[in-house]
Amino acid sequence: MAEPTAAPVPSDHIMGVYSRTPLAFERGEGARLYTTDGDAYLDCMAGIAVNALGHANPILIQALKDQAEKLWHTSNIFTIPGQERLAKALTDATFADEVFFTNSGAEAIECAIKTARKYHWAKGAPERIDIIGFEGSFHGRTIAAVNASGNPSYLEGFGPPLPGFVHLPYGDHEALKAAIGPTTAAILIEPVQGEGGARALPDACLRGLRQLCDETGILLIYDEIQCGLGRTGKLFAHEWASDAAPDIMAVAKALGGGFPVGACLATAEAGRGMTVGSHGSTYGGNPLAMAVGEAALAELVKPELLAHVRELGGYFTQQFEGLKTRFPDIIEDIRGKGLLIGLKLKTPNREFMQHARDQHLLIAGGGDNCVRLLPPLNLTVEEASEAVGKLEAACEAARAKAQSQPRAPAA
Fold first, then answer.
1. Which candidate in 43, 101, 134, 223 is catalytic?
2. Residue 8 clears pLDDT 50, i.e. is over it
3. Which pLDDT does position 6 carry in this prediction?
4. pLDDT confidence of residue 104
Protein backbone atom coordinates (compact mmCIF):
# COMPACT_ATOMS: atom_id res chain seq x y z
CA MET A 1 0.00 0.00 0.00
CA ALA A 2 1.29 3.45 -0.86
CA GLU A 3 2.38 5.62 2.03
CA PRO A 4 -0.12 8.42 2.81
CA THR A 5 0.64 11.89 1.54
CA ALA A 6 3.12 13.69 3.78
CA ALA A 7 1.43 15.87 6.36
CA PRO A 8 2.28 17.34 9.75
CA VAL A 9 2.15 14.69 12.46
CA PRO A 10 0.32 16.18 15.45
CA SER A 11 2.06 16.28 18.80
CA ASP A 12 1.06 17.85 22.08
CA HIS A 13 4.62 18.29 23.22
CA ILE A 14 6.87 19.08 20.23
CA MET A 15 7.03 22.61 18.85
CA GLY A 16 5.32 22.54 15.47
CA VAL A 17 8.10 23.90 13.29
CA TYR A 18 8.45 20.84 11.06
CA SER A 19 6.07 19.40 8.49
CA ARG A 20 6.99 15.79 9.14
CA THR A 21 6.27 12.87 6.88
CA PRO A 22 4.59 9.99 8.75
CA LEU A 23 7.67 7.77 8.80
CA ALA A 24 9.51 6.73 11.95
CA PHE A 25 12.85 4.91 11.73
CA GLU A 26 14.26 2.81 14.52
CA ARG A 27 17.55 1.58 13.05
CA GLY A 28 19.89 1.97 10.12
CA GLU A 29 22.63 0.00 8.46
CA GLY A 30 24.82 1.40 5.71
CA ALA A 31 22.56 3.08 3.16
CA ARG A 32 19.36 1.52 4.59
CA LEU A 33 16.91 2.84 7.12
CA TYR A 34 14.31 0.59 8.75
CA THR A 35 10.97 1.79 10.04
CA THR A 36 9.36 0.74 13.29
CA ASP A 37 7.23 -1.57 11.10
CA GLY A 38 10.33 -3.20 9.59
CA ASP A 39 10.13 -1.62 6.12
CA ALA A 40 13.48 -0.85 4.47
CA TYR A 41 14.22 2.41 2.65
CA LEU A 42 17.24 3.29 0.52
CA ASP A 43 18.55 6.45 2.14
CA CYS A 44 19.81 9.00 -0.37
CA MET A 45 19.41 11.87 2.09
CA ALA A 46 21.89 10.69 4.73
CA GLY A 47 20.39 13.02 7.31
CA ILE A 48 20.92 15.90 4.81
CA ALA A 49 24.57 15.07 4.01
CA VAL A 50 25.35 14.10 7.62
CA ASN A 51 25.65 10.30 7.66
CA ALA A 52 28.44 10.40 5.07
CA LEU A 53 29.80 7.00 6.10
CA GLY A 54 26.40 5.36 6.35
CA HIS A 55 24.29 4.35 9.31
CA ALA A 56 25.75 2.38 12.23
CA ASN A 57 29.26 2.60 10.79
CA PRO A 58 31.33 0.19 12.92
CA ILE A 59 34.38 2.46 12.97
CA LEU A 60 32.39 5.37 14.37
CA ILE A 61 30.51 3.14 16.80
CA GLN A 62 33.77 1.82 18.23
CA ALA A 63 35.24 5.31 18.58
CA LEU A 64 32.13 6.46 20.44
CA LYS A 65 32.07 3.42 22.72
CA ASP A 66 35.74 3.72 23.58
CA GLN A 67 35.43 7.40 24.48
CA ALA A 68 32.09 7.02 26.29
CA GLU A 69 33.73 4.66 28.76
CA LYS A 70 36.38 7.29 29.60
CA LEU A 71 35.14 10.89 29.49
CA TRP A 72 32.08 12.59 27.96
CA HIS A 73 32.51 16.23 28.83
CA THR A 74 34.93 18.64 30.41
CA SER A 75 35.13 22.41 30.33
CA ASN A 76 37.06 24.28 27.67
CA ILE A 77 39.03 25.95 30.45
CA PHE A 78 41.06 22.73 30.39
CA THR A 79 43.18 21.27 27.61
CA ILE A 80 41.22 18.69 25.59
CA PRO A 81 43.70 16.41 23.78
CA GLY A 82 41.11 15.25 21.25
CA GLN A 83 40.63 18.85 20.11
CA GLU A 84 44.33 19.24 19.52
CA ARG A 85 44.51 16.03 17.49
CA LEU A 86 41.45 16.78 15.34
CA ALA A 87 42.50 20.41 14.83
CA LYS A 88 45.91 19.25 13.61
CA ALA A 89 44.31 16.75 11.25
CA LEU A 90 42.06 19.46 9.81
CA THR A 91 44.79 22.04 9.42
CA ASP A 92 47.17 19.46 7.92
CA ALA A 93 44.53 18.74 5.27
CA THR A 94 43.49 22.33 4.50
CA PHE A 95 44.50 25.98 4.10
CA ALA A 96 43.85 26.67 7.78
CA ASP A 97 46.17 27.29 10.71
CA GLU A 98 43.63 27.15 13.53
CA VAL A 99 40.21 25.73 14.41
CA PHE A 100 37.33 26.52 16.75
CA PHE A 101 35.02 23.57 17.43
CA THR A 102 31.25 23.94 17.59
CA ASN A 103 28.19 21.69 17.90
CA SER A 104 26.60 22.60 14.56
CA GLY A 105 27.01 24.29 11.23
CA ALA A 106 25.05 27.36 12.30
CA GLU A 107 27.44 27.85 15.22
CA ALA A 108 30.38 27.49 12.85
CA ILE A 109 28.88 30.26 10.68
CA GLU A 110 28.41 32.46 13.76
CA CYS A 111 32.08 31.98 14.59
CA ALA A 112 33.08 32.74 11.00
CA ILE A 113 31.12 36.01 10.98
CA LYS A 114 32.57 37.06 14.34
CA THR A 115 36.08 36.13 13.20
CA ALA A 116 35.80 38.24 10.04
CA ARG A 117 34.50 41.29 11.87
CA LYS A 118 37.03 40.96 14.70
CA TYR A 119 39.83 40.72 12.13
CA HIS A 120 39.05 44.19 10.81
CA TRP A 121 38.52 45.54 14.35
CA ALA A 122 41.99 44.27 15.29
CA LYS A 123 43.41 46.07 12.25
CA GLY A 124 41.86 49.35 13.32
CA ALA A 125 38.85 49.30 10.96
CA PRO A 126 35.85 48.54 13.22
CA GLU A 127 33.49 50.01 10.62
CA ARG A 128 34.10 47.00 8.36
CA ILE A 129 31.24 44.77 9.45
CA ASP A 130 29.27 44.05 6.25
CA ILE A 131 29.01 40.41 5.20
CA ILE A 132 28.11 40.02 1.52
CA GLY A 133 25.96 36.98 0.76
CA PHE A 134 23.89 35.75 -2.17
CA GLU A 135 20.29 34.93 -2.97
CA GLY A 136 19.44 31.27 -2.58
CA SER A 137 22.07 30.76 0.09
CA PHE A 138 21.43 28.99 3.38
CA HIS A 139 23.75 29.25 6.37
CA GLY A 140 21.69 28.05 9.33
CA ARG A 141 18.83 29.04 11.62
CA THR A 142 20.36 31.29 14.26
CA ILE A 143 19.53 34.99 14.04
CA ALA A 144 22.87 35.93 12.47
CA ALA A 145 22.81 32.92 10.14
CA VAL A 146 19.33 33.64 8.78
CA ASN A 147 20.33 37.27 8.27
CA ALA A 148 23.34 36.06 6.31
CA SER A 149 21.20 33.65 4.27
CA GLY A 150 19.55 34.71 1.04
CA ASN A 151 16.01 33.63 1.85
CA PRO A 152 13.85 36.46 3.21
CA SER A 153 11.13 34.05 4.40
CA TYR A 154 13.42 32.76 7.14
CA LEU A 155 13.38 36.24 8.72
CA GLU A 156 9.60 36.68 8.81
CA GLY A 157 8.37 37.34 12.32
CA PHE A 158 11.81 37.64 13.89
CA GLY A 159 12.13 41.39 13.90
CA PRO A 160 13.88 43.74 11.50
CA PRO A 161 16.87 42.57 9.48
CA LEU A 162 20.15 42.97 11.33
CA PRO A 163 22.58 45.59 10.04
CA GLY A 164 25.76 44.42 8.42
CA PHE A 165 24.36 41.88 5.94
CA VAL A 166 24.14 42.52 2.19
CA HIS A 167 22.50 40.16 -0.32
CA LEU A 168 23.28 40.12 -4.03
CA PRO A 169 21.96 38.21 -7.05
CA TYR A 170 23.68 34.87 -7.51
CA GLY A 171 26.37 35.04 -10.20
CA ASP A 172 26.20 38.82 -10.81
CA HIS A 173 29.88 39.76 -10.85
CA GLU A 174 29.33 43.44 -11.57
CA ALA A 175 26.89 43.80 -8.68
CA LEU A 176 29.45 42.17 -6.41
CA LYS A 177 32.23 44.52 -7.41
CA ALA A 178 29.96 47.52 -6.95
CA ALA A 179 28.81 46.36 -3.51
CA ILE A 180 32.29 46.23 -1.97
CA GLY A 181 33.02 49.40 -0.06
CA PRO A 182 34.68 50.82 3.05
CA THR A 183 32.33 48.93 5.42
CA THR A 184 32.70 45.52 3.77
CA ALA A 185 34.25 42.82 5.95
CA ALA A 186 33.84 39.60 3.97
CA ILE A 187 32.14 37.60 1.25
CA LEU A 188 30.27 34.51 2.46
CA ILE A 189 29.39 31.84 -0.11
CA GLU A 190 28.72 28.12 -0.56
CA PRO A 191 30.95 26.71 -3.34
CA VAL A 192 28.00 24.42 -4.07
CA GLN A 193 24.63 25.60 -2.80
CA GLY A 194 22.61 22.95 -1.03
CA GLU A 195 19.23 24.25 0.13
CA GLY A 196 19.26 26.84 -2.65
CA GLY A 197 18.98 24.25 -5.40
CA ALA A 198 22.32 22.42 -5.75
CA ARG A 199 23.98 25.16 -7.78
CA ALA A 200 27.74 24.71 -8.20
CA LEU A 201 29.81 27.87 -8.53
CA PRO A 202 32.18 27.59 -11.54
CA ASP A 203 35.87 27.21 -10.71
CA ALA A 204 36.65 30.47 -12.48
CA CYS A 205 34.22 32.30 -10.19
CA LEU A 206 35.86 30.86 -7.08
CA ARG A 207 39.25 32.05 -8.33
CA GLY A 208 37.73 35.42 -9.14
CA LEU A 209 36.35 35.75 -5.62
CA ARG A 210 39.76 35.01 -4.16
CA GLN A 211 41.39 37.62 -6.38
CA LEU A 212 38.70 40.20 -5.59
CA CYS A 213 39.14 39.72 -1.85
CA ASP A 214 42.91 40.04 -2.16
CA GLU A 215 42.53 43.25 -4.15
CA THR A 216 40.07 44.86 -1.73
CA GLY A 217 41.44 43.64 1.60
CA ILE A 218 38.32 41.76 2.62
CA LEU A 219 38.05 38.15 3.75
CA LEU A 220 36.65 35.18 1.84
CA ILE A 221 34.45 32.81 3.86
CA TYR A 222 33.31 29.47 2.48
CA ASP A 223 30.33 27.62 3.87
CA GLU A 224 31.24 23.99 3.20
CA ILE A 225 28.88 22.61 5.80
CA GLN A 226 26.97 20.58 3.19
CA CYS A 227 29.32 20.44 0.20
CA GLY A 228 32.54 19.75 2.12
CA LEU A 229 34.26 16.70 3.60
CA GLY A 230 34.30 14.56 0.47
CA ARG A 231 30.80 15.26 -0.82
CA THR A 232 32.00 16.53 -4.24
CA GLY A 233 34.88 14.08 -4.71
CA LYS A 234 37.51 16.38 -3.22
CA LEU A 235 37.90 16.77 0.53
CA PHE A 236 36.45 20.28 0.10
CA ALA A 237 34.51 21.59 -2.87
CA HIS A 238 36.69 24.67 -3.35
CA GLU A 239 39.68 22.41 -4.00
CA TRP A 240 38.38 21.80 -7.52
CA ALA A 241 39.55 25.35 -8.30
CA SER A 242 43.24 26.18 -8.02
CA ASP A 243 44.30 29.28 -6.07
CA ALA A 244 40.85 29.71 -4.52
CA ALA A 245 41.42 28.89 -0.85
CA PRO A 246 39.38 30.91 1.66
CA ASP A 247 40.49 32.81 4.74
CA ILE A 248 37.76 31.24 6.89
CA MET A 249 35.63 28.13 6.39
CA ALA A 250 32.64 26.66 8.24
CA VAL A 251 32.20 22.87 8.29
CA ALA A 252 29.91 20.43 10.11
CA LYS A 253 27.48 17.67 9.04
CA ALA A 254 29.79 14.88 7.78
CA LEU A 255 32.53 15.83 10.25
CA GLY A 256 30.86 13.72 12.94
CA GLY A 257 29.23 11.19 10.62
CA GLY A 258 25.98 11.71 12.53
CA PHE A 259 27.34 12.93 15.86
CA PRO A 260 26.82 16.70 16.37
CA VAL A 261 30.09 18.49 15.66
CA GLY A 262 31.11 21.51 13.59
CA ALA A 263 34.18 23.66 13.16
CA CYS A 264 35.31 27.09 12.02
CA LEU A 265 38.69 26.97 10.28
CA ALA A 266 40.82 30.06 9.71
CA THR A 267 44.26 31.21 8.72
CA ALA A 268 46.37 32.70 11.52
CA GLU A 269 46.00 36.13 9.88
CA ALA A 270 42.20 35.94 9.62
CA GLY A 271 41.98 34.75 13.22
CA ARG A 272 44.20 37.47 14.65
CA GLY A 273 41.35 39.16 16.50
CA MET A 274 40.02 36.02 18.16
CA THR A 275 41.86 36.37 21.44
CA VAL A 276 41.07 35.07 24.94
CA GLY A 277 37.46 35.83 25.85
CA SER A 278 36.27 36.77 22.36
CA HIS A 279 34.33 33.55 21.77
CA GLY A 280 33.43 30.30 23.49
CA SER A 281 31.17 27.27 23.71
CA THR A 282 30.14 25.02 26.59
CA TYR A 283 29.85 21.82 24.56
CA GLY A 284 31.92 22.68 21.50
CA GLY A 285 34.86 20.33 21.15
CA ASN A 286 33.74 17.92 23.87
CA PRO A 287 35.68 14.63 24.12
CA LEU A 288 32.84 12.51 22.68
CA ALA A 289 32.52 14.69 19.60
CA MET A 290 36.27 14.86 19.09
CA ALA A 291 36.65 11.06 19.25
CA VAL A 292 33.97 10.51 16.60
CA GLY A 293 35.26 13.43 14.51
CA GLU A 294 38.78 12.00 14.51
CA ALA A 295 37.50 8.62 13.35
CA ALA A 296 35.23 10.12 10.69
CA LEU A 297 37.87 12.45 9.24
CA ALA A 298 40.39 9.62 9.04
CA GLU A 299 37.96 7.83 6.71
CA LEU A 300 36.84 10.88 4.75
CA VAL A 301 40.37 11.88 3.73
CA LYS A 302 41.15 8.49 2.19
CA PRO A 303 41.96 8.86 -1.54
CA GLU A 304 40.07 5.68 -2.39
CA LEU A 305 36.85 7.04 -0.86
CA LEU A 306 37.17 10.35 -2.72
CA ALA A 307 37.84 8.45 -5.98
CA HIS A 308 34.71 6.38 -5.31
CA VAL A 309 32.66 9.57 -4.85
CA ARG A 310 33.91 10.90 -8.18
CA GLU A 311 33.05 7.61 -9.88
CA LEU A 312 29.55 7.47 -8.42
CA GLY A 313 28.98 11.14 -9.16
CA GLY A 314 29.81 10.54 -12.81
CA TYR A 315 27.56 7.48 -12.89
CA PHE A 316 24.60 9.34 -11.40
CA THR A 317 25.06 12.29 -13.74
CA GLN A 318 25.12 10.03 -16.78
CA GLN A 319 22.06 8.09 -15.65
CA PHE A 320 20.11 11.23 -14.74
CA GLU A 321 20.83 12.77 -18.12
CA GLY A 322 19.19 9.67 -19.54
CA LEU A 323 16.18 10.15 -17.28
CA LYS A 324 15.98 13.78 -18.35
CA THR A 325 15.89 12.68 -21.99
CA ARG A 326 13.12 10.14 -21.30
CA PHE A 327 11.15 12.41 -18.98
CA PRO A 328 11.53 15.97 -20.32
CA ASP A 329 8.12 16.77 -18.87
CA ILE A 330 9.39 15.93 -15.36
CA ILE A 331 13.11 16.79 -15.20
CA GLU A 332 14.30 20.19 -16.38
CA ASP A 333 17.95 20.21 -15.35
CA ILE A 334 20.72 18.24 -13.59
CA ARG A 335 22.78 20.20 -11.08
CA GLY A 336 25.39 19.89 -8.40
CA LYS A 337 28.75 18.19 -8.06
CA GLY A 338 29.85 14.73 -6.97
CA LEU A 339 27.28 13.26 -4.61
CA LEU A 340 25.49 16.56 -4.02
CA ILE A 341 23.10 16.15 -6.92
CA GLY A 342 20.09 18.28 -7.75
CA LEU A 343 17.25 17.56 -10.13
CA LYS A 344 15.32 20.70 -11.08
CA LEU A 345 11.80 19.56 -11.77
CA LYS A 346 8.80 20.67 -13.81
CA THR A 347 6.48 18.90 -11.38
CA PRO A 348 6.14 20.02 -7.73
CA ASN A 349 9.16 18.77 -5.83
CA ARG A 350 7.19 17.86 -2.70
CA GLU A 351 4.94 15.60 -4.75
CA PHE A 352 7.97 14.03 -6.40
CA MET A 353 9.55 13.32 -3.01
CA GLN A 354 6.38 11.43 -2.12
CA HIS A 355 6.58 9.42 -5.35
CA ALA A 356 10.15 8.51 -4.40
CA ARG A 357 9.06 7.47 -0.90
CA ASP A 358 6.41 5.27 -2.47
CA GLN A 359 9.39 3.45 -4.05
CA HIS A 360 11.08 3.31 -0.62
CA LEU A 361 13.68 5.86 -1.68
CA LEU A 362 14.50 8.85 0.51
CA ILE A 363 15.57 12.08 -1.18
CA ALA A 364 15.69 15.70 0.03
CA GLY A 365 13.91 18.80 -1.16
CA GLY A 366 15.59 22.03 -2.20
CA GLY A 367 15.03 25.53 -3.45
CA ASP A 368 14.15 26.41 -7.04
CA ASN A 369 11.83 23.37 -7.19
CA CYS A 370 14.72 20.91 -6.90
CA VAL A 371 15.14 17.59 -5.19
CA ARG A 372 18.56 16.57 -3.91
CA LEU A 373 20.36 13.26 -3.64
CA LEU A 374 22.90 13.25 -0.81
CA PRO A 375 23.67 9.56 -0.30
CA PRO A 376 26.37 8.14 1.95
CA LEU A 377 29.74 8.55 0.27
CA ASN A 378 30.36 4.81 0.53
CA LEU A 379 27.15 3.93 -1.33
CA THR A 380 27.83 0.91 -3.53
CA VAL A 381 27.48 0.89 -7.31
CA GLU A 382 24.66 -1.64 -6.92
CA GLU A 383 22.84 0.68 -4.51
CA ALA A 384 23.36 3.59 -6.90
CA SER A 385 21.79 1.56 -9.70
CA GLU A 386 18.89 0.71 -7.40
CA ALA A 387 18.40 4.41 -6.64
CA VAL A 388 18.28 5.24 -10.35
CA GLY A 389 15.64 2.57 -10.90
CA LYS A 390 13.52 3.92 -8.06
CA LEU A 391 13.83 7.47 -9.42
CA GLU A 392 12.74 6.27 -12.83
CA ALA A 393 9.65 4.75 -11.24
CA ALA A 394 9.03 8.04 -9.43
CA CYS A 395 9.25 9.88 -12.76
CA GLU A 396 6.69 7.48 -14.24
CA ALA A 397 4.36 8.06 -11.29
CA ALA A 398 4.75 11.83 -11.61
CA ARG A 399 3.96 11.67 -15.32
CA ALA A 400 0.92 9.48 -14.72
CA LYS A 401 -0.41 11.88 -12.09
CA ALA A 402 0.11 14.88 -14.37
CA GLN A 403 -1.68 13.15 -17.26
CA SER A 404 -4.61 12.20 -15.05
CA GLN A 405 -5.30 15.76 -14.02
CA PRO A 406 -7.87 17.66 -16.10
CA ARG A 407 -6.46 20.36 -18.33
CA ALA A 408 -7.65 23.93 -18.08
CA PRO A 409 -9.93 24.91 -20.97
CA ALA A 410 -8.31 26.85 -23.78
CA ALA A 411 -8.84 30.61 -23.73
1. 223
2. no
3. 42
4. 97
